[in-house]
Amino acid sequence: MRDFLLGLAFLIGGGVVIAVAQTYPTMPSLQFGPSLFPSLIGGGMVIGGLVLALTRVGQLRSALAGPRSQAASYDYRGLLISLLPCALIVFYILTSEFLGALPCMALGMLILMLIRGAKPWLAVMVSIIVAAAIYLLFSRYLLIPLPEGILPPQNLLAW
Amino acid sequence: MDAFLQGLAMVFNVQTMLVIVAASVFGLFVGAIPGLTATMAVALLVPITFYMDATPAIAAIVATSAMAIFAGDIPGTYLNIPGTPASAAYVGESYRLAQKGRARETLGTNLLCSVFGGLFGTLVLVFVSPSLAEMALNFSSFEYFWLALLGLSSSIFIAIGSRVKAFLSLTVGLLLSTVGLDMMSGAPRFTFGVPDLMAGVNFIPVMIGMFALNEIMMFYGSRAEARQVPIASTDSVFRKAPGHLKTYWRNMLRGSSLGTLIGALPGAGADIAAWIAYALGKSRSKEKEKYGTGHIEGIVDASSANNSGISGAWVPALVFGIPGDTITAIVIGVLYMKGMNPGPTIFMNGGGQVYALFTVFFVANLIMLPIGYLAIRASKVFILTPRKMLMPVILSFCIVGAFAINNSITDIWIMLVIGMVAFVLARNDFPMAPAILGLVLGSTLENSFMSSMLKSNGDLLAFFERPISAGLGALVILIWLLPSLIRLFRRRRSAPQPSHKPRSS
């Protein structure tokens, strides 16, 4: 089922790539230009996606005809939790300028540790110490301009 | 001679030696923790190597990868969970040996085989690369086009599992390589008006997304937290290991040569080398029946092969700029950034730099002995490090590491998107190596094709006019046709059987 959907996704994605590639200019000395490779890649995606989807049609039919136990047993909770690190990255991107890199990292790590059942006191301690260590390593030793934030506690920690 | 001494001086100084030791310990941790791979270790290391000179930066990568591949055997032996995919082939064998109370003896043998394999691969690198480079000096865009295509093709045909999925994975990498300004016309492609994308997609955030964020998501998606060490081991690390090596020296030599060769093939890394070496070792063994029951011979071939594969992968990476595995794919990016452009000229203009690189390989492999010995004695520390505390730390490194490349938030977005795509693909058994190769080789393929077409006024036959180019072209076509030929051969062999049967009966 998932392979079939992925095949379709590649098919559509390939079509979009080809369509976008057609808008690129051609080179005067040759019949082709910057659009050639993206078009070939798009073509490959369409063909590969089609083959993948078609070879899974049989499985799809039997899955749809059979009992729905497989779909019911799918671990949606696990999938949602696996998206949590991504959500925390988005949180970092959106708030680090304001909150500062250090508290954002510490908060993200704390949430991730707690969700997998780490002891709260240990999680708080480790996340603060590690966030401070990473912040110092990158901003002081490697001179990366990590966002310092505008909140006073952050400025205090940064100094 | 001057260049050689200069190379030695670049390695044997306090800074580089400290970097090698620190990188080995880092590789040890990452390799010994199940779920963290050697490629992930290298991807996380790159942002830090940015701020080092070329020699310590490369030393850090070599030491980390070599040590991580050995360290993968530690949880494999104690927990039956391979620390890295490269240990998966013989994990059953080493776990059963550990159950018999021979864990340290097994790991000691693993360590010696890993060191031997690594040194063997290094010797091949030292002796083969310069002569290959001399040949490669005559290569033009036609040959590089076929070489890039050869690399991409073998990454699909060597991949374990579905070839269609490997091909689709490759298209993802190739598509990423087209982002940015077109080299020939200067037209922006797939940049969506984002200025940071004009220079193309930087590979480091992609690597971090593909190998680190993807693993973190996998970890949170599962509920596994294996954390008991049921096996107590008090045996000696090295007492019996030399005896095993004496008995199975042929296996060690065979595994190392096979590993180097497979490592040098683009798309096939240490894991595939280990699987093939284990299978070959078993088929050639006089005691086949003992395989799978905890037989030390079963680990010699594969344990040598995975470490020699790591060194072997550097041969095409250095000589042609075509990575032999995912680690060297990252290395190529680092070499470019350090001004050591991979290609045959690296051996001509490099001066002491090339000798420094070779020396680094010897030192990194030899230093595995003492550090590996201590690691075996203190195995429990690595195995019991809880992943629930480590994964969040790695996520923070991912964010800061991706940002550090260009000090740009766009790179964090790239890491995030690629990590999510890789997660979906990896969960559905799409191999990742073709995508990485596509990203690394995509621009070589396109640029060499375009400049060849300009040289030949659009004549496609020009790709077969030069002898080496024609030979490489024929090899690529052979690789494409190989699966069909094998199928045809098998069908022809199996077809006459039914007609023979009645006659014989």
TrEMBL record, chain A:
Keyword Kinase assigned: no
Membrane-spanning ranges: 35-55, 76-93, 99-115, 122-143
Pfam families named among the record's database cross-references: TctB (PF07331)
Ranges where the DUF1468 domain occurs: 5-147
Keywords linked to the UniProt accession: Membrane, Transmembrane, Transmembrane helix
Highest rank taxon of the organism: Bacteria
Entry protein name: Tripartite tricarboxylate transporter
From TrEMBL, chain B:
Bilayer-crossing regions: 20-46, 58-78, 107-129, 141-160, 166-185, 197-220, 258-280, 313-335, 355-376, 412-428, 435-454, 466-489
The DUF112 domain, residue ranges: 17-437
Keywords annotated in UniProt: Membrane, Transmembrane, Transmembrane helix
Membrane listed as a keyword: yes
Keyword Transmembrane carried by entry: yes
Protein name, UniProt field: C4-dicarboxylate ABC transporter permease
Organism: Salinicola socius
